[in-house]
Design the sequence.
């Protein structure tokens, strides 16, 4: 049998079996083959890539944890993934799918959307299905790490998301942090950079990852902006993690340290005073202190997390808030 005829047969058999729900016996009778031959054809269709299998894992949510987080931290909404039995990497992928649903439910058709970077935000972007929203503008809210890792760095994510949404993207082509006041003011004095950063004060929706205070998990350390020892020193003065790059303490206060003062990122204090719908996303046990601090600081309207992190945050609330 000629190759093209063989491929047509494989497509026909696969269509009858998967799309029309015919049994192998019914297909065999219809096409004049034996049942075992039809079984072999279906197997071959898989091997040749005519049939592709996608496993869609259901997203289960813990409504108990969602309600408690809303009550304790005065959130508009909380979305808590049930997934504590999974490895953290698998959980973050599912968290990204949940975050994608939440983001698209809150994004206006002509919305100005700000995003940070990090693993969870990366998974959100990967989970969003293509949409035709040409009036949407995607703004990168932070300078770049400059290491080219799409799971950590931001410019690529903003560009990718804009393509997925058929919108436009705006990126401040600057590093995440500079070493001096002079360099900071010089960069912020440039019109194109200033205009992009000014856009972050007028967002409709923001999707913000929450960074860990653990030096081993720090993208800032991996990028070379801070050493392991420097992050440990920042922890000693109270840092529990970061929001939009800013190191915060357990009460959500932005620490008065050189790193924060030279950070090129959206002004979180201003953002809290705008109508922007701010969505925070993070999961797994190592993020518990940083999630708690971010919630105490009131940075988010909506939190997307998992049940392990939610349980840890609520336990911290019992110790610190009672």
Sequence:
């Amino acid at each position: 049998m000629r190759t093209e005829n063989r491929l047509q047969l494989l497509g026909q058999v696969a269509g009858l079996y998967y799309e029309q729900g015919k049994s192998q016996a019914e297909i065999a009778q219809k096409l004049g083959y034996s049942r075992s031959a039809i079984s072999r054809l279906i197997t071959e269709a898989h091997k040749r890539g005519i049939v592709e299998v996608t496993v869609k894992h259901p997203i289960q949510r813990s409504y108990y944890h969602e309600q408690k987080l809303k009550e304790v931290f005065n959130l508009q909404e909380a979305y808590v993934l049930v997934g504590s039995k999974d490895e953290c990497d698998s959980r973050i992928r599912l968290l990204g799918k949940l975050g994608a649903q939440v983001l698209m439910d809150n994004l206006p058709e002509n919305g100005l959307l700000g995003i940070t970077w990090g693993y969870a935000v990366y998974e959100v972007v990967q989970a969003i299905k293509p949409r035709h929203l040409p009036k949407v503008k995607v703004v990168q809210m932070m300078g770049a790490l400059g290491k080219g890792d799409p799971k950590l760095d931001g410019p690529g994510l903003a560009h990718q998301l804009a393509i997925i949404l058929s919108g436009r993207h705006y990126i401040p082509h600057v590093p995440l942090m500079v070493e001096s006041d002079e360099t900071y003011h010089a960069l912020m004095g440039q019109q194109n950079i200033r205009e992009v950063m000014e856009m972050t004060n007028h967002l409709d929706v923001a999707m913000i990852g929450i960074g860990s205070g653990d030096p081993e998990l720090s993208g800032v350390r991996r990028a070379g902006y801070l050493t392991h020892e420097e992050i440990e020193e920042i922890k000693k003065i109270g840092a529990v993690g970061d929001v939009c790059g800013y190191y915060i303490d357990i009460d959500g206060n932005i620490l008065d340290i050189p790193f924060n003062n030279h950070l090129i990122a959206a002004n979180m204090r201003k953002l809290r005073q705008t109508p922007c719908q701010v969505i925070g996303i993070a999961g797994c046990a190592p993020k518990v202190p940083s999630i708690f601090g971010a919630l105490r600081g009131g940075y988010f309207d909506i939190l997307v997390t998992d049940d392990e992190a939610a349980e840890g945050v609520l336990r911290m609330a019992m110790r610190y808030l009672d």
